[in-house]
Amino acid sequence: MAAVSGASAVSLADAAAQFPVLRNRSFDGLPVAYLDSAATSQTPDAVIEAMTSYYTEHRASIHRGVYPLAAEATDLYEGARERIASWLGSTVQETVFTANATAAINMVAYTWGRSNVGRGDLVVLTEMEHHSNIVPWQLLCQDREAELAYVPVGDDGVLDMDALDELLARGPRLVALVHVSNVLGTVNPVASIARRAHDAGAVVLVDGTQAVPQMPVWLPDLDVDFYAWTGHKAYGPTGIGVLHGRRALLEEMPPFIGGGHMIRTVAANESTWTDLPGKFEAGTSQIAEAIGLGAAVDWIQAVGIEAIHAHEQALVAETLDRLASSSEGRGVTVQGPLAASERGALVSFTLEGAHPHDISDILGSGGVCVRAGHHCAQPLMRRLGVPATTRASFAVHNSVADVDRLIEGLGRVRRTLRLD
Ligand SMILES: Cc1ncc(COP(=O)(O)O)c(C=O)c1O
Q1: Most exposed residue of 54, 221, 232, 291, measured as fewest CB within 10 angstroms of its CB?
Q2: pLDDT in tens, 241-258
Q3: Which atom of ligand 1 is nearest to the CA of 100?
Q4: φ, ψ for residue 42 (rounded to 5)?
Q5: Does residue 98 line the site of ligand 1, with CB under 6 A?
């Protein structure tokens, strides 16, 4: 097999120095305080090097060529799949490359969904879903005249389990939920929800987009049917995502996109399909991107997902503490669970008297990058009774100095908008 990224054990401090954008860009002599990894993470050198190596040393099309260069490229692509699958406790057959998490969820909605959801059936979502785990199910339910219902979110930012049980008692076909909310930071008890949903006869899809980059995820423990995530939030390139699916379901599902590579035979009027996961990977694959994602997973493993998780939880705790105790945090309402140990690596908040876009703009003018808006979660914004929030999210490269910059920046927001 051709050489891969060659990651070795890396300390958090060393890892933090491995992001070219953060090395190359500064702001008025200060480093950029990049607090937007929940939108997209920065890319470590190892990922860029792995992709460059494909383009400069191994470039060829995969799967079809038998000459050495093509075999190397195929090994790199399939090797990435093997390492990604084994990292999360999945198998090669159950690990499908997609364009992103959105494409992965749509694939399930169009294939499993169109074969298994009919008129009057119930599909259960939660109020804290990203649009990519809402709209595909709306399209399915409209198409099939099926019903969509949402598990409510309590004032504590946690799902209402009694309401879930009531919905499960109605025998839904599917329960689709997010693992870690991109707005509230809530970490949902996926294994226990999956158990209850399975007892009720439902198939379970989990959007693991925010979970995979920041906490240990072991799919056999979660025992869900589909688990979707995206590469660009997990230190990987854009344009690549993953759908892990239970083999028996993937075998039964019709293909999503038809074309090259996904077939076994093509006759004039019909075709047969190749084995998993190729059946769901029509056309020329995102070869460099898959190789890059494999390198990202190697890199995360070299740093250690437990170390990453502990580091980010400490930064969340520091941020919550500073927002609650400092003069800069006056008038701030934090959304989601209040204990850092119960949330993912982000803090969304509103500040009385300030629009989130103004906050983000003023923070940005001081080199502090945070996201403002509805975060592709309009139903959740309505539930929270706010049009938008400001969100600071953390990754390997962040430090307490970034929290300092955020809090100082809020002081600047207060002065600029004359909130005091
Ligand atoms: C929780 C969650 N799910 C899904 C997505 C969609 O990811 P992508 O646009 O890469 O498909 C996002 C991106 O913001 C997200 O935060």
Answers
A1: 221
A2: 999 999 999 999 999 999
A3: 11
A4: -75, 165
A5: no
